């Protein structure tokens, strides 16, 4: 259920609203995040650390983030959004998307001041990860909300099955195609064509297993397009 909720609420508006705390304590020096090895917590701590080095205090950094949270709470009916996402099916998807999509688009704008603050703190290569994630979230929103859902039919039964099997699919496709990740001294920021081809195979493997669930499949496809292809594999071209 959780993955479906995140897809439907757009991860940008859920994970970041409720999933990241405000760290006030000092943290150890962190290396720049890598595209294939990061977490939201790590991104937060790294950005906070870099802003501190630029003279932006932890209090200023945290207050900027709290402004995002307040904006989202003022813009979205989060409780109703969560309830609707859990009961959405083909029969009511247009009504639900019509109700929430305009506000979701407004909610995305809440992040702009914070993202611009981060841009002033981190190097261009690291900011690419932040901007790539934002592009992914925006494309998921566009996919869900275009003409209030004409891109897909949300078959709840099929998507519930995909939710149950998602982790298995991820592990299976990664194990079959991504053993190179454990290679010592691997430069994950700039993968070779060979390794990027393996990532493409892993992506295609996952899309095949998620074929009955077009919302999830497109989330995976858009992640590859908007994140992997313009970070770790920006030097290669995938025609899939």
DSSP, total strands: 0
| Shape descriptor | flat
Q: How many helical stretches?
A: 11
Cα distance spanning the termini = 29 Å
Average residue-wise pLDDT: 78
Order of helices and strands: HHHHHHHHHHH
Largest sheet descriptor? none
Oligomer: single chain
Low-confidence stretches: 1-27
Structural class call reads mainly alpha
Count of domain modules: 2
Q: What portion of the residues fall into strands of 2 or more residues?
A: under 5%
Proportion of helical residues: 55-70%
> What Rg, in angstroms, do the CA atoms define?
19 Å
List its salient traits:
single chain; 240 residues; mainly alpha; 2 domains; disordered N terminus; Secreted protein; signal; DUF1397
Structure characterization notes:
With 240 residues, this protein is mainly alpha-helical. The chain has 2 domains: 40-154, no CATH class; 155-239, no CATH class. The protein has helices at residues 2-9, 11-18, 40-53, 58-75, 78-87, 93-109, 112-121, 124-145, 156-177, 193-209, 214-228. Helix 1 packs across helix 2, helix 1 (2-9) crosses helix 5 and helix 6 runs antiparallel to helix 8 (124-145). Mean pLDDT is 78; it is low at 1-27.
In short:
67% of the residues lie in helices and 0% in strands. It has 240 residues and is mostly helical. Helix 6 runs antiparallel to helix 8.
Give the topology, please.
Layout: H1 2-9, H2 11-18, H3 40-53, H4 58-75, H5 78-87, H6 93-109, H7 112-121, H8 124-145, H9 156-177, H10 193-209, H11 214-228
Helix pairs in contact: 1-2, 1-5, 3-7, 6-8, 8-11, 9-10, 10-11
Keywords: Signal
Pfam family, one: DUF1397
Signal peptide: 1-24
């Amino acid at each position: 259920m959780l993955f479906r909720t995140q897809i439907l609420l757009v991860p940008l508006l859920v994970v970041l609203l409720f999933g990241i705390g405000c760290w006030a304590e000092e943290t150890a020096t962190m290396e720049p995040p890598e595209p294939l090895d990061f977490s939201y917590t790590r991104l937060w701590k790294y950005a906070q650390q870099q802003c501190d080095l630029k003279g932006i205090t932890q209090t200023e950094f945290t207050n900027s983030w709290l402004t995002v949270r307040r904006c989202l709470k003022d813009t979205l009916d989060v409780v109703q959004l969560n309830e609707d996402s859990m009961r959405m099916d083909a029969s009511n998807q247009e009504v639900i998307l019509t109700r929430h999509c305009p506000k979701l688009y407004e909610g995305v704008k809440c992040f702009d001041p914070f993202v611009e603050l981060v841009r002033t703190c981190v190097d261009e290569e690291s900011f690419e990860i932040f901007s790539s994630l934002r592009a992914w979230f925006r494309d998921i929103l566009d996919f869900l909300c275009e003409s209030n859902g004409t891109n897909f039919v949300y078959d709840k039964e099929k998507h519930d099955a995909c939710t149950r099997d998602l982790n298995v699919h991820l592990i299976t496709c990664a194990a079959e195609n991504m053993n190179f990740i454990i290679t010592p001294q691997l430069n994950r920021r700039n993968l070779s064509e060979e390794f990027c081809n393996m990532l493409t195979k892993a992506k295609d493997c996952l899309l095949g297993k998620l074929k009955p669930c077009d919302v999830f499949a497109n989330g995976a496809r858009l992640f590859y397009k908007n994140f992997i292809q313009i970070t770790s594999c920006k030097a290669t071209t995938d025609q899939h």
